[in-house]
C-alpha cells in the first residue's frame, strides 16, 4: 500500500513529524510504502509533485505543514488527506471546525494555546507586558493564526496585562526594518512564530535584538534551536505517531470528515542556554529546571574558574 | 692703629647649636612615632583586617546557604516537572498503535528512556549553568571583597598619608618653634643687647658694657664689640689728653711767638740804637782821647780818663746790644758744645767755689754743633754766671749736655732763689734785671746778659726756655741743631 507524503518545504518540524509517522506505522505493524514529494517552496513544483502522487496511486496523502495541506486540498481533492505539522487548521482554512472537516480531510495539530504560551514566555521574561510578534506577508498563514488566537485570548481573558505588537516583513529583505520597527515600540521580547520567512532570516533578527538586549521567544522549533532563548513547541515525533494513528483509522475505514482534529495535551519547552548567553540574558534557573530540553553546546570553555 | 679683630669663631658654632636642636627634635619625633603612632596604626589596621575577614566569612556563608536552598528548591521543581511531563506524555501517547500490551509497555519504556536521557542531558547543562552562575556569584562576592580590601587599603593609605602630613606639619611647626626660640635666644636677644649697647655708645656712653656670655659667633662678636669699646675709650682718653696738650702747646707757641715778636722788635730797636750810639760813642771817645793826649792838668786828665772808661763801657754795651740784635758778624764752624761748656765751667769754677756752689757736670762727649764758638762760650758763661748769682749763699749747679733727636740739649739748673712768675715773660728783654736794687751800679748789671744769650741762640737757629720756682731754683734749657756729618 502506497501512502503519499507531500512537503512544501523542508522544515525541521515536518521532518521530525514524518519520522514519527514512520515510527507509528512500524509500531502498528502495518507495512506501507511512503512516496515522498517535495515542492521546496515552489508552487509549480508543488503542483507537479501532487500530480505525481496522484499518478502513483496513493491511498492516502500526508500533507506536511499548513501550506502543503492547502495545496493538496486544492489539487488532489480525490485523495483522502491527512494534514500534520499544522498549527491551527481552522484559522488556516484547512478545515471548517476542530471537530471535523466534513470532507476527505483529517489531521493533527500541534497547536499550543495562548493560555499555555504566555506563562511560558513570562518564565523567560518575567514581567512581560509588551510582546512583539514578527511575521511575514509571504509565508504568514500560520503566524497570522497564532497572532489572532493570541489577541482573541487577550480580549477574552481578563488580567492578562499583555499587549502584542505586530510587525510584518514583506519579504526577506524587509525583515531588518520590521525588527527595527518592533524595537522602536519598546517591546520586551520578540515572538518568532511558525513563519518560514522569519526563521529563515533569524540571524538578521538576532543581530538587532541582541544589540538591544531584547530576548527572542519562539513557537517555531527551528528558531528555538538557533537564536531564540525560549521555544514552546510539541514533541513532533509523538505528533507524527499520533498522525499515523489517525491515518490508520482512515485506512481502516473511518470517514475522514468525521474525525476531529487531533491535538496534544503536552508541550515541550526548549531553552537555548547558549543563545541566552550570547544575548547577555540570564534565564531564571526555574525555567531551566522546567525546560524539557536545554540547548547548550558549550560545556566547559566559559565556566568560571 | 688697632689690630683687626680675630674673626675666627670661638666656642660652639651657632649652626651646630641649631643642628643639635633639630636633631633632638627629630629623636623626639621618632620616639613619638615608635611609642604612640606606630601601635595606633597597627591596631587600626588589624581591626579593619579582622572586620574584612569577618565580612568575607559572612558573605561566603550567605552564598553557601543561598545555593543550598536554591539547589533544594530546584530538585523539588525538577522532580515535580518530570512527573508532570511524563503524565502529559502518557496522555498524548497513541494507544491505538499498540495492539499488544508488550508493545505499549515497550513504547512507554522507550519514551521514558528518551525522557530520562533528556533529563540527564539537561541536568548536565543545568549543572554547568548553575556552576557557572555560582562561579559568577562567587566572583561577584570576591570582587566585592576585593573592592572592600582595596577600599580598606586605600582608607589605610589615606590615613597614613594624612598622619604623615600631620606629622610633617607637626615636625615643621616644632622645628620652626625650636629654631625660632633658638634664634631668638642665640641670635636675636644678643643682637638686641648689642644694638642697645651700640646705641648707648652712639649716645656717648662709652662706659657701657655688653653682657653676652655665649661662646658662639654672637659671643665672639660681643667680645669683639667689648674690645672695640675698650679701644674706643682709650682713644677718646688719648684724644682728650691730646686736646689738652694741644691747647697748652698752642698757648705756649702763642706766647713764644709773641715773645719772639717782642724780642724781634726789641732787637730791631736795640740794633738801631746800638748803631747810632756806636758812632756817637766813637766820636766822644775820639774827642776825649785827643783832649786827654793834649791835657796836662791831672784833674782834667782824671776826668777825661773817667770819660774814656765810660765810653769803653758804653762801647761794650753797644756791642752786647748788637749781639742781641744779631747784627754782629759771626763765622760758624763745626765744634763740640760739650767742650765749649767744659771750658766755660772751668773759667767760672773759682767763682763757684767762692760762693760755695757745688757743680755737677754731666756732659755727653762729642755734642757736635755748627756755630760761633766764642758766642756759644759767652752763652754758657752768661747762664752759669746767672745761676751763681742766684745762689749767693751756696747751692748746687747742674750742667747736663746730651743729644735729643736732631738737637743738642744743654741744661743749666740751679737751686737758687728762682724767678717770680711775673718776671718770667721779661727775663730775655734787654736791660731787664732783677738786681736793680744793688748798691753798686756794676753789680746791678746791664740787663743785657740773658737778652744777648737769647740773641746768640736765635742766631744759631736754636731755642732757650726757662722753668723756675721761687726759692727752689731755675732751669735753663738750651737747644741748638745737631751738626750732621
What structural keywords apply?
heterodimer; A: 305 residues; alpha/beta; Rossmann fold; 2 domains; 7-stranded mixed β-sheet; 5-stranded parallel β-sheet; 13 helices; 20% strand; disordered C terminus; B: 485 residues; alpha+beta; 5-stranded mixed β-sheet; two-stranded antiparallel ribbon; 7 strands; rod-shaped; disordered N terminus
Characterization of the model:
Chain A is of the alpha/beta class and 305 residues long. Chain A is built from 13 helices and 12 strands. In chain A, the strands form 2 sheets. A 7-stranded mixed sheet of chain A has the order 7-6-8-9-10-11-12, with helices on both faces. In chain A, strands 2-1-3-4-5 form a 5-stranded parallel sheet, sandwiched between helices. Chain B is α+β, with helices and mostly antiparallel strands and 485 residues long. Chain B starts with 13 loop residues before the first helix and ends with a strand. At the A-B interface, helix 1, helix 11 and helix 13 of A face helix 1 and helix 2 of B.
Integer average pLDDT of chain B:
83
Secondary structure class of chain B reads: alpha+beta
Please give the domain count of chain A: 2
What Rg of chain A do the Cα atoms give?
A: 20 Å
Helix content of chain A: 40-55%
N-to-C span of chain A:
60 Å
The number of helical elements of chain A comes to 13
Shape of chain B: rod-shaped
Q: Helical content of chain B, roughly?
A: 55-70%
Alpha-beta content class of chain A? alpha/beta
Strand order of the largest sheet of chain A: 7-6-8-9-10-11-12
- Under CATH, the topology of the largest domain in chain A can be stated as Rossmann fold
The greatest inter-chain interface is formed by:
A-B, 34 and 35 residues
For the biggest sheet of chain A, the summary is: 7 strands, mixed
Total number of helices of chain B: 8
What's this entry about, in short?
With 305 residues, chain A is of the alpha/beta class. Chain A has helices spanning 12-28, 43-55, 66-75, 89-92, 114-124, 141-156, 175-184, 196-200, 202-211, 221-225, 236-251, 273-278, 285-290; strands spanning 2-7, 33-38, 60-64, 81-86, 105-109, 130-136, 163-169, 189-192, 216-218, 230-233, 268-272, 293-295. Chain B contains 8 helices and 7 strands.
